[in-house]
Design goal:
Blueprint (H helix, E strand, L loop, with lengths): L1 H12 L7 E5 L2 H6 L3 E2 H5 L8 H10 L1 H9 L2 E5 L6 H15 L9 E6 L23 H4 L2 E5 L8 H11 L5 H8 L14 E4 L2 H13 L6 E4 L1 E3 L5 H8 L7 E4 L4 E4 L12 E8 L1 H9 L1 H7 L5 E3 L6 E3 L1 H4 L7 E7 L5 E5 L3 E6 L5 E7 L2 E3 L2 E3 H4 L7 E4 L8 H6 L8 E4 L10 H15 L8 H6 L3 E6 L4
Parallel strand pairs: 1-2, 1-3, 3-4, 4-22, 5-22, 6-19, 6-20, 20-21
Antiparallel strand pairs: 7-9, 8-17, 10-11, 10-18, 11-14, 12-13, 14-15, 16-17
Helix pairs in contact: 4-6, 12-13
């Protein structure tokens, strides 16, 4: 991901002063994905509903927030599509006032990334969505815009073109017919199902709960271990809501799960698998070192693990090790058609301020239930198997975000495809068409990636596809 490379380069540049680079995002989930904090948290503005003048007073009373604004040289904002235009103007005024510097954003270099065709800002009741590019200070604050057009998620050019048409809300008859043909059952050689994407969290919880109830066997509960400088549990829980890792996860043998952390080149964030049992680290090591021998010796008692040929039960007394602390063993499907077993032990997540202060941290098994997932949580994920019912989609950009999670047409099932559900904001179309005209005219709105890597005053990276 280009943004991660930019963050790494900037942190190397300011290695002696890490608090000079502020990594933020419009949502907690996006912030967690890039190792930063929400834009609101960085700014010290709470919900940010007050006037800019009132917010300046609030920041001045908050010593840590004021110090962050003063120390920051580069402010990174990911998923800009969900940043409200009025909020953008407020932040710009806060920066100028707190820093006592009349330049845009008080002289802070901006690096802004996102795709305005994706999920829009959530407006206050009765108001229309106002995009960041509608902010009065956008033109002054953004010096260069770089269009990224290379698609990494989808290798098939036909599928990538269909999704780009959907992104812009302009489907050709050929693409409409192609999407309608995706209304069929998916067949896989293993017993993993496609993850169904829903617009609301309630639908996701209901679908996952129903599937869990259909499984037999003991429930294994894994509670997160939380920490950080924020000691107020309510506030800390709110911060940790941004992490994909749940506070509590209940699993049974047979649960379909998704990995939510990159482990290596083959087991990555988004990998699908099925829980085949629960083992201690010592038990799994013996099982993993010689599976056939282990099955032959310990096939008749103790911890139970599903296996293609037989049931494995490992006895503590036979192994000579304690199996009191057990973790899920998950059989993941690999892209090349093979499978791989992984003992999913606790992994860390943290919400970290630019100065290195860890406000909140969570240690939890890196899994979530994956029969169903919300479109919001899926944004940014790459998924081999996806099922979407477009009849449930209600927001502009939702259809595109949901369907573009899929890597191939073979792994995508689309129910109730309706071209009328494929809608893009007209303002966004106008914004991008003006950029295209400027690029074609040889204007200076398009600069090379080499220029971006060298560091420029203010940039907005408009991503055709999140990759």
């Amino acid at each position: 991901m280009l943004l991660r490379e930019i963050i790494s380069a900037l942190r190397r540049k300011y290695i002696r002063e890490p608090d000079r680079v502020a990594v933020t995002a419009s949502t907690g989930l996006a912030a967690c994905n890039v190792g930063g904090v929400t834009l609101h948290s960085f700014a010290g503005i709470g919900l940010g509903k007050e006037s800019a003048e009132e917010l300046v007073k609030k920041v001045r009373k908050n010593q840590k927030a004021r110090h962050r604004w003063m120390r920051t040289k580069v402010l990174i904002i990911d998923e800009v599509s969900m940043v409200d235009g009025d909020l953008f103007d407020k932040l710009e005024q806060i920066a100028r006032t707190i820093r006592n510097n009349g330049r845009p954003f008080g002289g802070i270099q901006l690096v802004i990334t996102g795709d305005f065709f994706q999920l829009p800002p959530v407006p206050d009741s009765g108001k229309a969505a106002k995009f960041a590019f509608d902010a009065g200070t956008w033109i002054a604050a953004i010096e260069h815009t770089i269009g990224l057009h290379h698609v990494f998620r989808q290798k098939d050019p036909e599928f990538a073109n269909m999704l780009n048409e959907m992104r812009e809300g302009r489907l050709t008859p050929a693409s409409i017919n192609a999407f309608k043909k995706l209304d069929r059952k998916l067949a896989f050689e293993d017993d993993l199902e496609a993850t169904e994407l829903f617009p609301t969290r309630q639908e996701v919880d209901r679908a996952n709960t129903l599937r869990m109830q259909q499984l037999h066997g003991e429930i294994h509960t894994f509670e997160a271990r939380d920490g950080g400088t924020v000691t107020d549990k309510t506030f800390r829980d709110k911060l940790l809501q941004s992490c994909m890792a749940p506070e509590v996860i209940h699993l049974k043998k047979g649960s379909q799960v998704m990995l939510i952390k990159n482990m290596d080149d083959t087991l990555v964030n988004g990998s699908l698998g099925k829980v085949i049992g629960f083992m201690s680290e010592q038990t799994f090591d013996k099982y993993h070192q010689n599976e056939e021998e282990f099955l032959a010796i310990h096939g008749d008692g103790g911890e139970e693990i599903a296996h293609p040929d037989m049931k494995l039960k490992a006895k503590t007394d036979l192994l000579g090790v304690s199996t009191s602390q057990t973790f899920p063993v998950v059989r993941f499907a690999i892209a090349d058609g093979t499978t791989r077993d992984l003992l999913c032990q606790r992994e860390p997540w943290k919400i970290e301020l630019p100065n290195g202060e860890v406000q909140a941290s969570r240690s939890q098994v890196p899994l979530i239930l994956a029969w169903a997932l919300s479109i919001h949580k899926a944004q940014g994920q790459t998924m081999e198997r996806v099922k979407v019912d477009l009849g449930k989609v209600f927001e502009k950009g939702q259809a595109y975000v949901a369907l573009s999670r899929a890597t191939t047409m073979q792994g995508l099932q689309v129910l109730r495809f309706d071209p009328r559900k494929v809608v893009a904001h007209e303002k966004v179309r106008s914004f991008y068409s003006s950029l295209t005209r400027a690029e074609q005219a040889g204007g200076d709105t398009k600069v090379t990636n080499k220029s971006a890597q060298a560091g420029i005053k203010a940039s907005a990276y408009e991503k055709s596809f999140v990759s």
